[in-house]
């Protein structure tokens, strides 16, 4: 394989969490007096950190979200994850093949470390990622679309950005990877291909990914 490191986003790439998370987020924002549809949440927040939610609501309304917003959102989201979350179809086989072929890989997500761990444990993917290979937006000053998270992951793993491939499903993530100088493979199973058009390659089934990475 021509890459020295494959960096996976978590939500929507490893675990099928975007429908659950954005349903909960849109409902909670609407409950707080900021009407938000599921489609609004996907458009505005998919791939971003919780801080992005705070920032956009403040910019649009001049109102700050409650101090306990993040904690409450996490509690509701984790409860849904523990009962409903599933891995993305085919991703376990991809991870197993990378391990067999000794291809370094890690996870870099806008989610908190707790959110990542809850998701990986529920889906059984935690065996593929020890703590040294999990990176969160909590670890850097700026989340996606800034390149900081991917650059941090590459540095920690000891691989130059130009030799990294990122697997992403959100426009914010694609922009972050491109800004980091990395190739990015846009997973378009849920996200329209047009919104991932800046990706190096697009695919819609995890069974396609290994062949793309090996080209």
UniProtKB/TrEMBL annotation:
InterPro entries, A to Z:
Beta-PGM-like, HAD-like_sf, HAD-SF_hydro_IA, HAD_sf, PGP-like_dom2
Task: Write out the similarity annotation.
Answer: Belongs to the HAD-like hydrolase superfamily. CbbY/CbbZ/Gph/YieH family.
CDD domains the UniProt entry points to: HAD_BPGM_like
Record's protein name: HAD family hydrolase
Q: Among its keywords, does the record have Metal-binding?
A: yes
The stretch of residues making up the signal peptide is none
Which GO MF terms are attached to this record?
Answer: hydrolase activity
The Swiss-Prot or TrEMBL record lists the needed cofactor(s) as:
Mg(2+)
Keywords of the record, alphabetical order, are: Hydrolase, Magnesium, Metal-binding
